[in-house]
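Quick one: structure tokens for this chain, please?
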Amino acid sequence: MLNTSLNMKLDKKKLLGQFFSGSKIAEMIEALVPSRSITSAIDPMCGIGDLLLPYAGIADVTGVEIDTQLRDTIIERLPNIQCISGNVFAAQTLSCLKPEGYDLVVANPPYVRKELIGKAEETKFSLTDIICNLHFFTDEFNTLNEIERNMMHGTIDKISGLSDLSIPAWLLCMMLVNHNGKFAIVLPNSWLSREYSQPILELIDNLFDVNYILNDVNGVWFKGNAQVRTSIIIASRKSACNKDAFIVDLYENAQSSTSLYGNVTGIYDLANFIKKGVSIPNVFEIRRLLKSTITSVQTEKMEVCVRSVSSNNNEFITMPSLDDIGLKISQGLRTGANGFFYLKRVSEGVYQSIISAAYIRHKDNLFLPVIQGQSDLTDRYVVNTKLSTVLLNIQDSLTQSDYDNTEEKHKIGYGVLPLDIQQYISDSEKLKIKGHLIPALSSVKTNVSKPPKGLYRFWYMIPKLQSRHTAKIFIPRVNSSIVTVYKNEIVNAVIDANFSTVDNSHNSIWTNNALVAILNSTWCQLQYEQLGTVMGGGALKLEAVQLRKVKIPNLSKEVLSEFDKIGEELCKRKISNQSDLLDKIDLRILNSFLKNEEKSETLLCELKNKLQHYKEARQ
């Protein structure tokens, strides 16, 4: 009976977000939130009931599951459970839940991508329906006071159209925690850094005190299943009492055959062992948080380092972020159909399509060079060599057919495309990418615009490029080893979405050379490791939303001018031959606020040791 999950079709598992938690995760949660300390528990997306099993002995246990095929399995495992079969976001299901909430809400929310929400036969619910019901039951449940309700409504209103199903699931879980209760939620580590999750994290900080954040360092808790690095957040409703908060990094070596921490704790129970605070490097590492908030977690290690040498305890906290100083950090160009818009340069004026093998012979004025991936990078901080990929950048020309069928007022200034490009467009209209005709792709059909007044645009016309697409400073989003920040010196080069870009056009004193120097410093490297997301294979994923949080000391124009000169020299050398310049950069950054060379050298040594530890941990 318990092999149900093995027989499920993969498509159904994706549509419902089904990756069952297993007994080891459930046992670790119960070790920190003992069943003897609560009288009621609920898992609103319970799967086969894994997370509720340790709480089977308490009087009031509720599990909600959308997949009716799992009902018999749940009841067999938890005979005393109140098992509700249905969509937990449906009004009829929500009305069955206790309005006063529960002592414990456990969940492994379904991480169903936005385009799959409501596609499963069991759901038939759109994100709009879900948001509507969340608003209604925010007022129906008695778990929030008036101020908290307003916060909840405000966060629901911020749900992005890019959100996966985990976002409303998190909001519901928080809503179900009673005034003295807790939640324990399993989540992929990457979720903490998603831009659309930020309003949720802020709400957690407003309503809850974080007790524990448990991290699966080696990505083994769901080994052979979801293949992601996982975290567990345990938090309790805010109170006037100060509560200890801990981050615990669990490595694979901490596991025994029956427990995720069985090789570590010895005679101590898990909670007491963590409170003792004795870390075992690369096995079981414990860190006490300065604040019981989740938004401060990622950079607290940096804050501790700075406090150790600075007389100002708030030195790091008060530093501006890259976002604060006016640098615009965004993702590079996402075409929606690289197979059509990107071509390979064969020779001067000759281009080959990636998807149709067609050759186009034409002048370069319709094509822009593209820095597309890691293969375009060099062994230097500068990219200035000839690129093999180009972007078909049609802005003011139409196919003959579209030109003839468009009224004059909607084509003023437009010309007709060369015949070879017209033929390429005509051939491509019949080609499919991922099962869809290119013009019908969701991110291509939005190129079409036919306003009552103004110029028409057609599917083959890429949206007009913004400064972020052609910025001169860029950073790979996926980094197998150390994060390197590059300068683009190619005229009119476009940066692909494989990279984040730094647009300094609104802050001229932060020159390209100064940025190359500062953003490649140990000071920034350590923050990248703390803010980024470690992927399954050990690579570090670093998104724009994370880069914006990187803190920089307040630097004067004179200091930035120094960095401009150092950065210029940095760009002349190979990356592997930079240790003396990088040390000079690091010490200048640290001394800008410590004003003491000895303290700067001490802090730099500590930062380097921590950076090395991070790099080793993800390899």
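The longest strand covers residues 177-188.
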